[in-house]
Amino acid sequence: MQLCTLPWLGFVPDDVTAAPPAAVARLAERLQVPAGALGRYGEREQTRTEHLRAAARYLGWRPAKALELKELEEFLLARAMEHDAPSLLHRLACEYLISAKVIRPGVVALLERVAAARAAAQALTYDTVAPILDATPTLVEELDRLLVVDPEIGSTRLHWLGTAPTEPSPGAVKPSLPSCGSCGGWTRTPWTCRCCRPSGAGSWPGGASVEQPGAGAPRAAAPLPDPADAAGAVGDRQA
């Protein structure tokens, strides 16, 4: 039973006797022992531990010691910088331990490391963006406004930016693109509307121009070649 559950689950459940009856019957058939014999398993205190060590040694698995836990913490920190959901981090940690053939520690120990990774990721994120925020005070105000409920859309801008249309129809797409309050144009973010750019019309934050020279003037159409000139050029090459 442990040889099957360890590669599948990444650990062996404490209550081996609670295994599904179909699995117990199949295993009893292969071992040619009565199915009821599993109920007497583990009467000796060290039986389960010795069998788990033997199964792990046979399968090439190893227990989660200091080195393995340190590698797990580094993995969780890297994933927490990408995803903040605790349930997702827990699932990724279980998958990582299975791929590394490390016996999963207890649920409490694993959740403690998930929480520590989320806290470390938050601190690392703040340390990374702190110089940018200090150099651009207006950016702090713009980000704070993302957390304020906008009466026009009935939610915060942060929630609205992560909400996609429910179906590919004009009626579903139009509410996700509220009009600009100044010019009436459709805009997803203030950076895409000229009149709403924090640094002024025609520039991005920091003063970089977004308009190329001559962008506002109509582009002259290229003249068409004269057929007579083209025919003469062909004749000269043939000659």
Written account of the structure:
There is one protein chain. With 239 residues, the chain is mainly α. Among the domains are: 58 residues, no CATH class; 70 residues. Helices cover 50% and strands 2% of the residues. It contains 10 helices and 2 strands. A two-stranded antiparallel ribbon has the order 1-2. A hairpin with a 4-residue loop joins strand 1 and strand 2. The longest helix is centred in the middle third of the chain and has 29 residues. The termini are far apart. The C terminus is likely disordered.
Features:
disordered C terminus, two-stranded antiparallel sheet, 239 residues, 10 helices, mainly alpha, elongated
Main sheet overview: 2 strands, antiparallel
Order of helices and strands: HHHHHHHEEHHH
Subunit arrangement of the protein? single chain
DSSP strand content: under 5%
Note the total helix count.
10
**Average pLDDT reading:** 75
- How many extended strands? 2
Structural class, by secondary structure, is: mainly alpha
Percentage of residues in helical conformation: 40-55%
Shape: elongated
Strand order of the largest sheet: 1-2
